[in-house]
Amino acid sequence: MKILCFSSVFGTNDGYGQITWELTKEVSKHHEITLLVPPQKNKKEVNFEVKEILPEYIFDLKSKKILQYLFFDFDASGYDLIHSFFEFPYALIAAKLAKKYKKSLIIGTQGTYAIKPLFMFPEKYFLNWAYNTASMITAPSVFTRDHIQKFSPTKTPIQVIHNGLDFEKFQMTPPPRKKEYGDKKVLMTVGGLKARKGQDIVLRALGLLKKKRNDFLYILVGSGELRGKLEEITKEEKITENVIFAGEVNSDRVAEKFHECDIYVHTPVLGNWNFEGFGIVYLEAAACKKPIIASDSGGVKDAIIVRKTALLVKESDVIGTAGAIEALLDDEQLRKDMGEAGFAYAKAHDWSIITQEFLELYKKVAKG
Fold this sequence. Notes:
This protein is of the alpha/beta class and 368 residues long. Helices cover 37% and strands 16% of the residues. The protein is built from 13 helices and 13 strands. Strands 3-2-1-4-5-6-7 form a 7-stranded parallel beta sheet, with helices on both faces. Strands 10-9-8-11-12-13 form a 6-stranded parallel beta sheet, sandwiched between helices. Strand 1, helix 1 and strand 2 form a beta-alpha-beta unit. Helix 1 crosses helix 13, helix 7 packs parallel to helix 8 and helix 7 (199-210) crosses helix 11 (318-329). The relative contact order is 0.12. The model has no long low-confidence stretch (mean pLDDT 96).
């Protein structure tokens, strides 16, 4: 089968880049694919065709750059189906080609840009048209699926297929414990320092705990515009000595960082329809046998098993987050049990397994 694929990024360290890299790598073992992307800064050696010909990514269709989308063309006549890995904006081009060349179309969705454009003008009309053009839509979580169905009039079926991870990448001998960590339990969050990631909730929670204990250290891996505010919070909460801003970490060292912590805590929030559509980081932490604290936000519950691989707290709940942290700090057996359960859950989400669901979907859509 020949498949024409679309993505916004390829070979980057962010979530979309990882998904594109892992999915294309696995699919290309079974089918002949061509991947269309905009010009990329990072290059990867691959055994399939990559064409850097898509127009520049845009968030606003009122931009003059929309003309590049309207007039874009590519000969899709020789392909069996088209798969846009993500929704906005390149699914618009994919839908246009599917219409022109009478090809079946699959649109993959993730989070924010599967929903947010449905509240914008004229974006909602274009995205709804693309959704209606598709033979099938995929979503990484029940939350994303349900809210597309809630806010879009599309009748196109939506199938939930979880995101995956390269499980073996996280199987390594844990690095020696750093002397500066001492005997403190290490908590960690990996992700951009931005409002929707919820690092401020964790800092406030640790401020509450600091009033009665000092046996923890919190490491924030990532960079972003919120760093200044987060540093201010550490001063307000008098936990400066308990917090390390580690900055960006090379993708080759991400697994090593996960192995450094005792507890993975990640408490995202939904604001202005910016949200976590799934949360691959939870699988990555679980692959390292780390117990997890997560917030009930967006599609997070698809990336964990509540009370088995993770403790779940309400969104923006500082007191509840503090309670969950304390529960894991004080219960070594609970940490171990959650780590083991998470390990099994992550292993079942290796991309080689998740890709099988896409391969079955390709057969179904191609026949239909």
